[in-house]
Every structure is written in C-alpha cells, then in structure tokens.
Amino acid sequence: MGIELSSEARVAPLQSGSPTIATLCSHSSLQLFHGARQEGFRTLGIAAREPPRFYDAFPLAKPDRFLTVPSIQDLPNHVDVLRKERSVLVPHGSFVEYLGPEAFMQLDVPVFGNRAVIGWESDRRKEREWLESAGVPMPKRYERFEDVDGPVIVKYYGAKGGRGFFLAKDREALKGFTPTGPHVIQEYVIGTRYYIHFFYSPLNTDGFRVATGSLELLGMDRRDEANIDELYKLGSAEELRRSGLRPTFVVTGNVPVILRESLLPQVFDIGARIIERSIELFGGMVGPFCVEGIMTEELEFKVFEISTRIVAGTTLFIRGSPYSDLVAPDLSMGRRIALELKRALRAGRAREVLS
Ligand code: AMP
After folding, report:
1. I need a surface site. Which of 117, 261, 296, 311 has the fewest CB within 10 A?
2. In a mutational test of the pocket of ligand 1, which residue from 156, 163, 252, 304 has the highest number of ligand atoms less than 8 Å from its CB?
3. What is the pLDDT of residues 274-307, one digit of tens each?
4. What is the CA(91)–ligand 1 centre distance, in A?
5. E strands within the chain?
C-alpha cells in the first residue's frame, strides 16, 4: 500500500459515521486540523475556558467545532462529548504535558498511535532503557559528580521547558553546585543539533521496510532555545555565572535544517532500531516520532531525547519539506496522520493505528 493523496479540491468528505480528529488547541494544532481537513475529516478543537482567537486568522486550520472545558485537567469529565463525536485524539507535547501522562493514558477515547508509549517517554530512565537496549548511541550518563570526566548537563526530572538545567565544562565546575531535586547527569555533547521527524506506518508494504511496515523521514528542524542560543553574546559562561545569568533551554521557535546526505543511513538505522525495540517492549510505536540528537565532529549522532508523537517543528513543513516532497507532494505531518487513519479505516485495520 503506497501513499495516495487526495487532491485538496476533490476531497470527498468521509461518511457521516467517520471519526472526528480532535486535539488540544495548542502546540501543532493548526497543522493537525489543516491536515485532517485535507483528508476530509471533521475536526474538533479542545480549549480551556475559551477557544484561542488566533484560529480566526487561519481559516484553513480552524477546527469545525470546539469543546470548551473549564481546565484541561477537567477533560476526563467530558469524554462523553468526545465519544459522541466519534473523536480520535491526536496527542501532542502540550496535550500530554497539561493533562498529565497518566491521565492522558487513561482517557476512555480512541487515541491515534499506541498510548503505551507515553509511559516510556515521560520517564527519563525508562526512555534510556528503551533506547540503549535498542543500540542507539546516547550521551554518557554519570551516576555521581565524582565520576564526571568532561563537560556535563545536569537535567532535573520533569524540568518544564528546559529551565533549571545546569551546565559544567568539567568536574571542577560542578563544585559548589547542589542539585535541588531528582536529576540526571549527562555528558554535554558538543556538535550540531538535529530534530528528526519520522513517521512509522504499520500499514505500508513498500518504502524503507521496518518490521511489518515502513519508516518515513518527513522533515528536520532545529529548535530555537532561549536564552542559551544568544547568551554567548554577553560574555563567557564564567563571567555570566558571576553576574547571576544562568543558561536556559526554553523552546521559542524552530528553524528548518537538512542533514548531509551521507549521514542519512545513520539516522534511518537509529529510527529503525527504535521502532523494532518498541515492538518488543510495548507492542510498537505507531505514527509520528522525533529523534533528537547531536551530530559530533566525528559524525556520530548521539540521541539525547525522543518525542513519541508529533513535534511542533513539523509545522515548518505544512506544504512539505525537502524530505517529504520525495515521499509525496504536499505532505505535512498532520496530513500524514489523517491519511494513515483514513487508510486504516478503509482497510478495516483501525485497531493497528489506534489505542
Ligand atoms: P531535553 O529536555 O532533554 O530535550 O533537552 C533540552 C535541550 O538541552 C536540548 O534541546 C538541547 O539543546 C540541550 N541538551 C539536552 N541534552 C544535551 C546533551 N546531552 N548535550 C548537549 N545539549 C543537550
């Protein structure tokens, strides 16, 4: 089964009993609603208190209807509405974060992808167990400050949006630093960052075969992070620290990138390993995921994080990317999700892409 796109002008709406694609009005929702519409789905935006006004400025991405709840945490009390609309929820970073991974996993509404993956992503230790056991190269991890033998980044558990991370160029620079909560000490990898947007289709029977389906590379971005990206302009790390200025990694936007073509086999190999191991560990990851890592000057890609759902950087490629254009024209990640759902429904294989 290859990829067949509906021409936007000719999209026949799915039958009346077909599902509605629903997500939280945040993160990558513009692209998700736009892509769902392109494939003929009805769309539902979940909003806290009131729908964001900015949708009025983007008519092609405005959801058909809104479900307004007092707070996102209140969503489990409104699942009857979601079920009545035959909603399929598409998870994104803000949706899972605001509702909480546990509450999200327990929602009694169909979710696109395997929701079991959320439990593996939201716990840094479990995530590492998955990736390491898949043979994915990762930054070294130190159990104790005394073991540190190079530059490190100290990350707190659940640090929201990259605040509170501590950087040290060596063990000496860690002296006097007392962590204030549970944390991991990781090798600070020096190189260039790439955030690689993959899609795993269990339905494909051609393409880059992995397990029973195939792996698609649809784009790549780099995140703009405040204040680390611009901090260097003010002086050396030491000087800044003396002035009480600390680096933070708060994502403020995204820029498109591509990778040297000769490095593509390396990242496809990593993507394939992650999928194969996910099948052994928890029945497999389906749909979009993002491998986040640093390419060193030795041209070794070290993965510091995986996002097991759509990432916001994919919105750069609403009309396609240099990679997705070679898969099919006009293929955003949002549209790819809708397309997979449509193909699965038509083939009577919805259970393989929903949980
Ligand atoms: P994370 O919360 O793990 O996604 O990390 C947030 C940001 O910190 C990343 O986007 C990178 O800019 C940076 N970062 C995380 N881990 C490392 C690492 N091991 N080496 C260098 N930079 C890192």
Report:
1. 261
2. 304
3. 999 999 999 999 999 999 999 999 999 999 999 9
4. 22
5. 20-24, 42-48, 65-69, 87-89, 141-142, 152-156, 166-168, 183-187, 192-201, 208-210, 213-227, 249-256, 287-295, 301-307
